[in-house]
Design a protein that fits this description.
three-stranded antiparallel β-sheet; alpha+beta; four-stranded antiparallel β-sheet; 5 helices; 313 residues
Amino acid sequence: MAEAWTYQAAPSHEATGEEWTTQGIAVLTAGIVWDAVRVPYTPLGADLDRHADQGWRARPGTPGPVMSSGVPGRHFRFDKGRFSIVLPPAPPGVVPYIAGWSEERLLKCPITRRRVAPGIAYVDETPYDRDSFGVLWARYALRPKQRRGTPQLRNVHPYRQRRAMLNMMCQVCSRTPPDPHGPHLFLLRDSCGAVREGERTTSPPVCVPCAAISIQLCRALRGGRFVAAWARRVPAWGVVGPLHHPVTLRAVPGCQMEQVKYGSQWALWVRAARTMGELRDVTAADLDREFAALGRDRLEEEFARVAELTAVA
């Protein structure tokens, strides 16, 4: 019966036949409802019908394939597309390159008015405080990895995010693109359908292996809540950050993370915390094909590389 249920949930009869014999695909029971899931057999144990770990059981009555995260009790469902290979479990403890850390805090710097032009400035401003468009950037501590403290995955470090966006580096492992002229892979939360031409984002690109990791570990993307696209060009559109009042110079209430276009009047009064790019020459990305092209063995090798590179020191 288990084999029959796996065939029913699989993307193709041929793929499932091979996985059943070579990878040990299992079927779990959840209460009185059978639910086919495609997970590695090993963590479940041989006597899986009635005595498997309850944490590994799928949610009752939910159709479609489920992939294991490598953490008991957590499964990620891909309702908007099925992968032809079973992804390796994402390595635990991955800290993205752009993530914030407890000891890399915002530095308190007095704000003053610029002398030679309208806008805000630092009292002790240096040439490194502005980007090539002349926008003032927030100052954050930047420390060696061994002295960064603990990762703050909900936060983004402005300098590393800016560097990743400008150089099209992978936001997870900081890998530079094989072709600086693109295309570049962008993995975004699915908020309004497929990625559109001209869509703006502060999320730097990812390499294909890190995309496979992100859809398993990132809370915003779990459960198939993601869209992926290739963008040939990603010009800098503007920045995101708090606005300061032109008269009082104080931060404007309710305008802590405003999108400000380069060259606009508000670009003089923003203290940037993110670079925002505009996706051009966009084509939909087929992650299933990208993962299959690498293959499971190569993905496991890449996962090990990323785990070593991003592990907390």
